[in-house]
Specification:
single chain, two-stranded antiparallel sheet, elongated, 2 domains
Length: about 110
């Protein structure tokens, strides 16, 4: 997932406009020609933003972001079951003897 940084103008103690808001990509470079930014804050979900910029549509790359509850509901609708991976994975010999427990983070690196 690529994150962007949204920097609104400094507050002046009054009702604030969005004029002067800057948006930066993951490399810290400002994204030019942003016409609007809509920040979405929802309980039990990540903070998301919809950013409007002019585009030339050669290719479309998208990452689907879904809450766990929505993913389970979609799976149930289509007749699937969602199973969470265990935090600890057992490493076994061919004789099914456990020789080491590994945390999932160690494997994913």
């Amino acid at each position: 997932m690529t994150l962007v940084r949204i920097v609104p103008p400094k507050p002046d103690g009054k009702v604030q406009s969005g004029f002067g808001t800057r948006v930066y990509n993951a490399d810290g470079e400002e994204i030019p020609e942003v016409s609007s930014v809509k920040v979405i804050l929802a309980p039990n979900d990540i903070i998301r933003a919809e950013i409007d910029v002019p585009v030339i549509l050669d290719e479309v790359w998208a990452v689907a972001i879904m809450s766990e509850a929505n993913m389970k509901a979609a799976a149930e609708y289509y007749g699937y079951t969602v199973t969470k991976k265990p935090d600890v994975i057992q490493v076994e010999t061919l004789a099914n003897n456990c020789i080491r427990n590994i945390k999932r983070e160690e494997v994913v690196k």
